[in-house]
Amino acid sequence: MEFKHKHLFYSALMMSVLVLISCGGPQEQQRGPAIGMEELSAWLTGSFSSTEQASRDTTFFDVCLEMVPIWENRDDGFWLYVEQAISDSQDEPYRQRVYQLLQLNDTTFQSTVYMINEPSRFAGAWKNEDPLEGLTPDSLTIREGCEIIMFPRGDSVFVGGTLGDFCESNLNGATWATSIVRVYPDMLYTWDRGFDEEGNQVWGAVKGGYEFRRVEQEAH
Fold first, then answer.
1. pLDDT higher than threshold 70 for residue 117
2. 177/163 Cα distance (integer angstroms)
3. pLDDT computed for residue 4 by the predictor
4. How many structural domains comprise the chain?
5. Which domain CATH number covers 14?
6. Of the N and C termini of the chain, which has fewer Cβ atoms inside 10 Å?
């Protein structure tokens, strides 16, 4: 798309900012990251809820987020099945995705995003022992340009996001979307937004991102 070429510089700028935010000072870089794929995959796995945030700010919805490992015998990264639903409509998730976590180098991690064909047939599958039984990666559709690039910062958080305007979106008149992510041991912070060709935000939270606190599955 033509509008993307206008913002190529933004990708390089975004990458530089993320590296500066996450890498710390020279001594920390020499030591190497204190956390890696083991922590990232563990912190992203589980049940999460934005109930606490929604109770103090009604501009945010009360959302349940479920992320469970799938295809654990594969050797091409760590795979997750993801469901998001409004808390009082958990049987009707509004987002179902598959994430593939990859380690690109010592300090860089990537979450590749895939869409599922006819996802409603898998609603609630996170509860199953084999969540996406019968499904294989080659039946998924990759969301080109929507990869989340993440970096460890110290020993308690991964920070990152999408790069530039390469993640296409047609929701509510958008042409591209962005995601900002922070992953903690007990919380996920995600801020997804859509923009039109003029750079106006047309969907997503305005004040900031969603705070998903880790909860026990029974709480859902």
1. yes
2. 10
3. 42
4. 1
5. 2.40.128.590
6. N
Over range 165-186, report the average pLDDT.
96
Cβ neighbours of residue 52 under 8 Å, at least 6 residues apart? Answer: 211, 213
Q: 67 is written with which tokens?
A: 């992320």
Which residue range(s) make up the domain with 45? 2-219
> Could you identify the residue written with the tokens 């869409």?
115
Is 215's pLDDT higher than 50? yes
Question: In terms of pLDDT, which residue wins out, 102 or 13?
Answer: 102
- The 3 state secondary structure assigned to the chain is CHHHHCCHHHHHHHHHHHHHHHHCCHHHHHHCCCCCHHHHHHHHCEEEECHHHHHHCCCCCCEEEEEEEECCCCCCCEEEEEEEEEHHHCCCCCEEEEEEEEEEECCEEEEEEEECCCHHHHCCHHHCCCCCCCCCHHHCEECCCCCEEEEEECCCEEEEECCCCCEECCHHHCCEEEEEEEECCCEEEEEEEEECCCCCEEEECCCCCEEEEEECHHHC
Give the pair of three-digit tokens for residue 151. Answer: 């970096």
**Distance of alpha carbon 207 from alpha carbon 54, whole angstroms:** 13
| pLDDT tens profile 6-50 | 344 344 434 444 444 444 444 444 456 789 999 999 999 999 999
Model confidence over 83-101: pLDDT tens digits? 999 999 999 999 999 999 9
